[in-house]
């Protein structure tokens, strides 16, 4: 950079000039200022006078009426106000940005971080797409089907099962009076939701949730459970009878038909279908929010 | 909280009175600045209006001035003029014509010398570089201080001090050339 010319005391001339202008702006008279600068006044004077003449140009330039511009300005403000009341970004986010303060880049970053926190929270609450299949059955919905098997108390009952989700086993116990039916082992059920034991009248007496490791495959083919009946003979005595294992052929109430493999044409919105739609709406909303935040942040930076 | 801060808060809420005050305070300076950089009445009016629309959009986004309204709005005006020349792909150079000086036209009959000097001054301003012209218009015609001028121009106060000195020097030389030419014209006419 070109070095500035200096006066006798070594002060750059632009500093002398700036100081003289500032003193004039502070209200000192031109003569006063020039006198104080001594020999510098020779070159300083014309330049200072020139700045004063430049200032007087304000009066020279004819400015047209500002009426039209003002009306446009106020009308635009009104339109923007109406627009703001409709939009999330201009309302909530603008107020937030004003509270944050600081340069635009900082504000944009804060907005983005807040939105990412919201998104992360949302994903945590509503679940991630990758995890969803592990927690949701992927089998097709089927009508509730009851499989009935008669059994002898103490026997191991094997039920052929072709569909989910409910299995009801009813039996005719060989003890009298009416026994209390008890499952003595966890039924081996692959896969199902629960096994229900009913007495001879068909009234449900016990329901045991079957713990299964695999919910997806293989399809349910068999349920094995040992059922024991205990008859209360008196207030003080109990008798337990166990029967000989007597597998009984399963008789499903509803025979599955080939069409049953396909989902019904008019499935009610329940189960996995309901979950899918809800999940999609929630995740969609979160990403929309993130998109708006990114757009708003970029506008702030620009 | 200063008056400028209060005005900013109210303007951000789009209060009509605050917006009106802002417009009335700054329309004329902004118009003059644009006019001396563009040289066309209609274009200057359009660009000045555009400046205020841009002000509204910025306010809506929560932005505003950090020092003074003048510095902020002149910064917007400077960008708009730059965009205008970028769109036209033309060097920002004002061709001075008679339409630029309506006030001088009326004063010619009374104070010929003074009017001619002003005309020469305006002519000289148009011959400066874009930055020199900016600093002359902002610093001396509109009276912005060093700090605000630096903010508008995106420079340091020190750089503005140097620039203003060189701009005034260049203006003085251009004036001498202009007035010399004018005297020569008068002499030739006689």
Largest interface: A-B, 46 and 52 residues
Spell the H/E element sequence of chain B.
Answer: HHHHHHHHH
- Decide which structural class fits the backbone of chain B: mainly alpha
**Could you tell me how far the N terminus lies from the C terminus of chain B, measured between alpha carbons in angstroms?**
64 Å
- The gross shape of chain A turns out to be elongated
Please state roughly what percent of the residues of chain A sit in beta strands, choosing from under 5%, 5-15%, 15-25%, 25-35%, 35-45% or over 45%. 15-25%
Q: Termini of chain A, distance in Å?
A: 32 Å
Low-confidence stretches of chain B: none
Number of helices of chain A: 8
Mean pLDDT of chain B: 85
Structure notes:
The complex is a heterodimer of chains A (302) and B (190). Chain A is α+β, with helices and mostly antiparallel strands. Chain A has eight helices and ten strands. In chain A, strands 2, 4, 5, 8 and 9 form a five-stranded antiparallel β-sheet that branches. Chain A has a three-stranded mixed β-sheet with strand order 3-6-7, with no helix packed on it. A two-stranded antiparallel sheet of chain A has the order 1-10. In chain A, a hairpin with a 5-residue loop joins β8 (222-232) and β9. The longest helix of chain A is centred in the C-terminal third of the chain and has 31 residues, at 271-301. The model of chain A is unreliable at 129-149, 158-179, 189-194, 208-223 and 229-273 (pLDDT under 50). With 190 residues, chain B is mostly helical. Chain B is 77% helix and 0% strand. Chain B has helices spanning 3-12, 16-38, 41-60, 69-88, 102-107, 112-126, 130-141, 146-153, 157-189. In chain B, α6 crosses α9 (157-189). At the A-B interface, α1, α3, α4 and α5 of A face α2, α3, α5, α6 and α7 of B.
